[in-house]
Amino acid sequence: MATGEVKVLGSWSSPYVMRARIALHIKSVNYKFIEEKLSEGKSELLLKSNPVYKKIPVLIHGDKPVNESLIIIQYIDDTWPSAPSILPSDPYERAVARFWAAYLDEKWFPSVTSVGIADEEEAKKAGISQMEEGLALMEEAFGKCSKGKGFFGGDEIGFLDIAFGSFLGWLRVTEKINGIGLIDEAKTPALVSWAERFCSHAAVKDVMPDFDKLTEFGKMLFPKIRALAGTR
Ligand SMILES: N[C@@H](CCC(=O)N[C@@H](CS)C(=O)NCC(=O)O)C(=O)O
């Protein structure tokens, strides 16, 4: 039974946290958002709720913590099964959506981070070209998954829309900081209109971070990560 208060431990700038919030919005679940100030240290509640990774987001349902954003989306879909569904109902389509979501997390987003923290032109160029290759794959995947409709999930936002769309803010920041265009009409026309639809969707627009604020945050964060990487 879906009883008990719902809380999300997160931070405004985290793409992974957005995923949990979008899924809750889609299901019209009320929840309390607890902002974790990671730069000031992790709260006791976070350390207790995610002792393995100590990362956000954490969804707390009643007294039960759920960790890892993609698992959280699936938990929300299972726990509040009324329409709209987030995962596709067809087993093959579910497998495909999970495949691309794992690809985005394990391969594609690390290339975005690598561009942000690169201190040499060569490394930056390599990261940008990996990002472009990934976007070409996602353009093709969009054609197959959407079947001519507006989202990867069809008529409505689904699992892969949430997994990919949550990275759009950081993608735009990377474009801006580096003076490049990656999702554009010439290279990825379907993703251009998908991104517009995704960002203006009622379940998304209030949690999509302000672009200028995120850009300033990125300019402050990337050098810090670069410095940390250099000390390892
Ligand atoms: N695989 C995790 C990634 C979560 C993640 O990297 N969260 C970051 C914030 S964007 C975090 O908590 N960082 C703190 C740390 O690494 O100690 C998920 O999908 O939930």
Automatic annotation (TrEMBL):
Positions of the GST C-terminal domain: 90-222
Enzyme class, UniProt record, top EC level: transferase
Catalytic activity: RX + glutathione = an S-substituted glutathione + a halide anion + H(+)
Transmembrane segments annotated in the record for this chain: none
Keyword set, alphabetical order: Cytoplasm, Detoxification, Transferase
Subcellular location: Cytoplasm, Cytosol
Highest taxon, organism lineage: Eukaryota
Oxidoreductase is among the record's keywords: no
Keyword Iron-sulfur set for record: no
EC numbers for this chain: 2.5.1.18
Molecular function terms from GO: glutathione transferase activity
UniProt-listed InterPro entries: Glutathione-S-Trfase_C-like, Glutathione-S-Trfase_C_sf, Glutathione_S-Trfase, Glutathione_S-Trfase_N, GST_C_Tau, Omega/Tau-like, Thioredoxin-like_sf
Pfam families: GST_C_2, GST_N
Cellular component, GO annotation: cytosol
Membership in a protein family: Belongs to the GST superfamily. Tau family.
Free-text function comment from the UniProt entry: Is involved in the conjugation of reduced glutathione to a wide number of exogenous and endogenous hydrophobic electrophiles.
Protein's name according to its UniProt entry: Glutathione S-transferase
Native source species: Hibiscus trionum (Flower of an hour)
